[in-house]
């Protein structure tokens, strides 16, 4: 069968779908991955072709920056965010903030005519490709809501591939309850203002499938998922962290414990000016420890740090799948890909959750499973971080917790195990 994967234009979103795409290709299916040119163009770290997959460009990402502006801002911990805790009372309002921000992001697929600037909208490019290529199955990123329209128009079966907490489904479920509540002042779904014109362009109407797919493939750990009434298929998240030659310094095991500090591939761009992490002071604090710290820093971050201690190695980029097998701890901001890589290699985690999506949920889960510790990004204290790192390296209980997370990951079906089910569901739903 022909399978079209559509992704939000960010490296971390691409990396989450690569193992399943490989599994489909290995089973003999034709697979293409469609997105904005930023993850299609050769020479870009994290491009689709570098992962051994066929790429289809949907146009330039010119609309992406303003759409993300309200979301990322200056990346300070107290900014408005797409992240919210589904377990908090609905009255807390965080999910409504996320609902509003999502509306501004989704509009990038079909901007108002005055904002198109002569460029064809992503929606039209994707629909045209789907009509021409005629996929049997479309697997789509929860943030790529042009995809279900292309699937419906081309007659393909379609499903979401969820890479984190299912915030879109939670928001949609709560919005439907709000619309049904006679006390509510809400009279129509807030997303109709941007989704309506997209649907009308192709003679479609809003229904649950257009927001949630015909079924949902879920890469998150089982105990992290929010209970939702969905046709739900768990899939093991096999971490793909990029392809690169193995550097010489990783050929042998380190002589002392190794700790990795990373903000993730996509996050370093967003948090370049404000990471929420006191790099310079932290490096000074670990200079006297008998550890090796590997920090993935871009040039802007490295310039802000200044002189680096002898036991700190800085690199622009190294795939986590290369460095984590010889590491004893990892410090990160709670991104799903980094979390999954740490789980796969059974590495204890110190999470400093700067919230974009579900980082607080991830951090709490790591702590609850005894696989690591959490630092409050709004009140970072270098002495406290220093003590937490030492505890993570010296207390063997965190290794046991990391093993527990790993075993839970193994309990989910591997991507290769899911392929026959996708074949059957596609045949039923096309």
TrEMBL record:
Family: Belongs to the glycosyltransferase 28 family.
Keyword Glycosyltransferase assigned: yes
Lineage of the species this protein comes from: Bacteria, Bacillati, Actinomycetota, Actinomycetes, Kitasatosporales
GO biological process terms held by the UniProt record: antibiotic biosynthetic process
Region feature Disordered, mapped onto this chain: 66-94
Xref: Pfam families: EryCIII-like_C, EryCIII-like_N
Keywords tagged on the record: Antibiotic biosynthesis, Glycosyltransferase, Transferase
Keyword Transferase attached: yes
Residues covered by the Erythromycin biosynthesis protein CIII-like N-terminal domain: 22-264
Name the UniProt record assigns to this protein: Putative O-glycosyltransferase
A molecular function GO annotation: hexosyltransferase activity
Start and end residues of each Erythromycin biosynthesis protein CIII-like C-terminal domain: 282-425
InterPro entries, sorted: EryCIII-like_C, EryCIII-like_N, Glycosyl_450act, Glycosyltransferase_28, UDP_glucos_trans
């Amino acid at each position: 069968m022909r399978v079209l994967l559509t992704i939000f234009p960010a490296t971390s979103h691409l990396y989450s779908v690569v193992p399943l795409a490989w599994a489909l290709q290995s089973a003999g299916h034709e697979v293409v991955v469609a997105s904005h040119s930023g993850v299609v163009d050769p020479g870009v770290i994290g491009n689709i072709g570098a992962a051994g997959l066929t790429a289809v460009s949907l146009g330039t990402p010119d609309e992406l920056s303003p759409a993300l502006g309200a979301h990322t801002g200056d990346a300070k911990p107290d900014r408005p965010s797409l992240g919210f805790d589904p377990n908090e009372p609905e009255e807390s309002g965080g999910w409504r903030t996320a609902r509003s921000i999502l509306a501004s992001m989704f509009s990038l697929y079909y901007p108002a005519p005055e904002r198109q600037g002569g460029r064809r909208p992503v929606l039209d490019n994707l629909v045209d490709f789907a009509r021409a290529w005629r996929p049997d199955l479309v697997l789509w990123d929860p943030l790529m809501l042009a995809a279900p329209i292309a699937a419906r128009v081309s007659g393909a079966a379609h499903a979401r591939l969820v890479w984190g907490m299912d915030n879109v489904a939670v928001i949609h479920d709560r919005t439907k309850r709000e619309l049904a509540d006679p006390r509510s002042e809400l009279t129509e779904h807030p997303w109709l203002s941007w989704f309506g014109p997209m649907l009308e362009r192709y003679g479609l109407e809003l229904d649950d499938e257009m927001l949630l797919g015909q079924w949902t493939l879920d890469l998150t750990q089982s105990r992290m998922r929010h209970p939702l009434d969905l046709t739900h298929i768990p899939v093991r998240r096999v971490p793909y962290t990029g392809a690169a030659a193995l550097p010489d310094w990783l050929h042998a095991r380190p002589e002392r414990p190794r700790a990795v500090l990373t903000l993730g591939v996509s996050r370093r761009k967003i948090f370049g000016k404000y990471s929420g992490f006191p790099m310079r002071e932290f490096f000074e604090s670990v200079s006297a420890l008998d550890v090796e710290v590997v920090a993935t820093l871009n040039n802007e971050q490295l310039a802000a740090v200044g002189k680096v201690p002898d036991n700190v190695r800085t690199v622009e980029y190294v795939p986590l799948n290369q460095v984590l097998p010889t590491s004893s701890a990892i410090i990160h901001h709670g991104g799903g890909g980094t979390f999954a890589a740490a789980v796969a290699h059974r590495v204890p985690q110190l999470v400093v959750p700067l919230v974009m999506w579900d980082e607080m949920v991830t951090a709490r889960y790591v702590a609850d499973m005894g696989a690591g510790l959490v630092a409050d990004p709004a009140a970072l204290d270098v002495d406290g971080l220093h003590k937490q790192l030492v505890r993570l390296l010296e207390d063997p209980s965190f290794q046991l917790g990391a093993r527990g997370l790993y075993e839970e990951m193994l309990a989910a079906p591997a991507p290769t195990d899911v392929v026959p089910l996708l074949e059957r569901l596609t045949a039923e739903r096309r």
